[in-house]
């Protein structure tokens, strides 16, 4: 596991353990490869959240997909 993969996994764990977080959004760049575009979207905590960096990623500069928390406060 690369340092980046560890960091992404740790950030996902932190979000999952935060009671204000109701879901996870996977964000990718507009120019990301089809594999990255394929995992983009909103996920509930019960769903299988894709592992980042994307395994089949072919982005020129490396995978830029990242997790973003979906907070309860914003959508009460
Ligand atoms: Zn990619």
Please describe the structure with a list of short key phrases separated by commas or semicolons.
76 residues; alpha+beta; three-stranded antiparallel β-sheet; 2 helices; 3 strands; binds zinc ion
Strand-helix topology:
Layout (H helix, E strand, L loop, with lengths): L2 H14 L4 E7 L6 H6 L1 E4 L21 E6 L5
Antiparallel strand pairs: 1-2, 1-3
Bound molecules: zinc ion.
The site of zinc ion (ZN) has 9 residues, from helix 2.
Please tell me about this protein's structure.
The protein has a three-stranded antiparallel β-sheet, with helices on one face. The chain has 76 residues and is of the alpha+beta class. The protein starts with a helix and ends in a 5-residue tail after the last strand. It has one domain. The chain has two helices and three strands, in the order H-E-H-E-E. The radius of gyration is 13 Å and the shape is globular. The structure holds zinc ion. Zinc ion is lined by residues 32-33, 35-36, 54, 57-59, 63. Residues 32-33, 35-36, 54, 57-59, 63 line the site of zinc ion.
